[in-house]
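QA checklist item 7 of 12: single-chain prediction sanity check.
[x] sequence parsed
[x] length recorded as 288
[x] structure emitted
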Amino acid sequence: MTHIKHLLWAGLLPVLLFSCVSSKKFKALQSKYDSLNSSYSACQNDLKNCNSKTADLTRQKSDCDSRVDALQKQIAFLKDNNTQALKQLEDMSVISSAQAQSIRKSLDNLGAKDAYIQSLQQMLAHKDSMNMALVNNLKGAIGDLNDQDINIKVDKGVVYIDISDKLLFASGKYAVTPRAQEVLGKVAQVLKAQPDIEFMVEGHTDNVPYRHGDLLDNWDLSVKRATAVVRILQNKYGLEPAKMAAAGRSEYLPVATNDTPEGRQLNRRTRIVILPQLDQFFKLLEHK
């Protein structure tokens, strides 16, 4: 009997050991699979962000190419028309040789103007690329905040940062919430790294009359909210006050209808407008 028991234990022991080892291997493989799956998800998210940035830059390049083509067509058209008109006048002996020479000189100046237009185009393209870099830096600094809370975009060469009312303020108030101060700090880091940038902070409301008592109306509320944001950017995050401006827009520049709760929520916002640096273009014009 004892001999039979020994035989049974001898047969069961390898099975038990094999089961234990297989379970450990399975758990190790499962853990490795989970880690790889997490890395795969992160890579997919990075790829999505890169594709989005690439699409934005492609659209910017397409706009610049369209502007260049349009200007070049205008130059070619003017040159062709002027050359034909000059030839017709010379053939008809309507103008003197001195006058014809003067007109030729004017036509030669078109080449210089063409170079000047190209330099302006290069400046526009440079400005567009700088704006896109600024937008990407802002989006990277802010992270994965919902687009309904903060939206960064470029429209006609101007960078806009729209921050929702519900993120910044309590209803009818103008004291910036602690969470919003953290977001403003991330925006301030990017703006502070660009010392030449000037910007305006705009307060916007919906069309619901202000009834909280300590302010006069929506004009007053929108201005107070703009100045509250500016003070935080200056006093807490050290942005240069000479580079900032605060303005209240009240209810008069909506981005959506005020007839629905969703539309009114979109209209209650604070907007940071990166002001275009037009002085660079004016200086270029002075030398021409």
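[x] summary fact logged: Helices lie at 2-91, 97-142, 165-168, 178-192, 218-236, 261-267, 279-286.
[ ] second reviewer sign-off
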